[in-house]
Amino acid sequence: MSEFEQQKFNIAEQIRGLCAHCTNGLAHDCRLQNLAKEVKQLSGVPLIVNDRFNGLLFTR
Q: What would the pLDDT profile of 14-51 be if each residue is shown by its tens digit?
């Protein structure tokens, strides 16, 4: 897993951790769940300088 993919996963899990229903795996629909899905769907070209991830260049 690339560093970018790892960061996306970590951020999505942290967002889901803010909702008790998401944390417990209950079926529901909330803004945090949708936001975590949006984070997981981000795509683009990783901007790497000196072997360090510095961001993402979004593509259309």
A: 999 999 999 998 999 999 999 999 989 888 777 788 88
Q: Does residue 7 contact residue 40 with C-beta atoms inside 8 Å?
A: no
Whole-model pTM?
A: 0.71
Q: What six digits make up the tokens of 52?
A: 């360090």
Q: Which two tokens stand for residue 18?
A: 């803010």
- Measured from the Cβ of residue 57, the count of other Cβ atoms closer than 10 Å reads 8
Cβ contact 32:43 at 8 Å: no
Q: Three-class SS of residue 16?
A: helix
The residue with tokens 């975590």 is 36
Where residue 60 falls among pLDDT bands split at 50, 70, 90? low
